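Q: What structure does this chain adopt?
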Amino acid sequence: MSKKSTSPKDFLSDRGRNLLIEALCDNKISKADLQNAWNSKKFSAEDMLYFTSTNKKYLDFLGITYRQEGMSLYLHPDKYVGCVPFVSPITGIKTGNLLVRGRFREDISELLSVVGEGVNIEYEPKYLLKQESTIKPPLYFICQQYLDKYIEAKKNHWQKFNNVEKIQSFPTSSTKWDKYAIKSADIRNLLRYPNRVNVLSDNHSEWQVLTYILDLCIQELLSVRTPVRSRTPYIDKINQLAHSYSKCDLKYANDIKTHMTDPRVIKDLKEIGRKIINASAGVSCAWRLDQSLFFERYVQYLLGEVAHTRGIKILNNTHFGIRGDIPAFGLKYIEPDVILEKDNIQYIVDAKYKMYMYAFNTKSELLYDDFRNDLHQILSYAAFGKNSSKKVIIAVPYDSQKDPIKRTFQIRNPHNGCLCDFHLVGIPLSKVKIHNTKALLSSILNFE
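A:
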């Protein structure tokens, strides 16, 4: 990966005091940048050291390593994009957010709305942002998680005691004597005592709060903010759940308390519900997304669209099991990102969030070793194909302002004549380039 250093001067947000840096590179932050970030003219080397120690838990959450050189601080996000708050070393209070965007400056929100399911965005409710993140994952992702977890919890029939009023033929210590005095004026009510009793029910107050959050989720998923592609797989679940409760049974809440006695699935449901309540109230928490895994999912989405139109069988993340006397440090399986099959012809595809296409004409020992490892890896995947002519693709990001491009070469075994057609494909990380990218991928996939 590139060791390029970038200054965040141009990235300082005009709204609030945010720091915006890029993943997978060294981001140089000078004394002046930090002074500007928390509006203080007093700043020493000790303050910079205190900044890293005070904000260590936030930096660790985003996998950011750091080093100090004089009065400059270098932040290096390893794999995550996301957002966390930061604390000023001068005042000790939160003054802004630290945002990490993709190495290729892609629009995360735009691409998330395209890819849809299968993207794992991690949230940390304990780390509340100073203000709403300018790079924000859509709310419907959390709502989809809530629906799935709600269905799982509903099957468990979680019951608790409800204290309700019940008419009984005998008085108790909980008899509502004021009501009885009024009702007993009618002789027919002399033996009708309004008592408070505990009844075991699965429609208790806490479940009504969780159902209230479910109603919020359904409204969000049916809104125009949720792309049709992301809404469609949940339509049946939405219709089923929407008819399973009455609006009268909903109980509003601005917070959810978790109890030690709650079942595990209920604790998980409440945790997701707390995020939705915070989001509805305009409160945002820290989040992160593994950019390499997201790019892999994006490539799988593109190839899935192409495969669907051409009748190609597609397999994502297939495990090739390894058996035998495996060492403790050995692999139990290997896992190609995508396998495409049709008419006894197979393509192996591996997605790499790397700069190969940008540095195509640059000599670099680091890139040489990196590319050699990736080439050996995909060739090992292709070795399990039945045909002697192998076909492999390594997909990498490419500038969203350009059309998708490819570089093709062949690998030939001189001893038996076996060939491997290799394609290095540059994928624009832009929604407007999807049509051209699909067209290029379709032209590469030759199954004749």
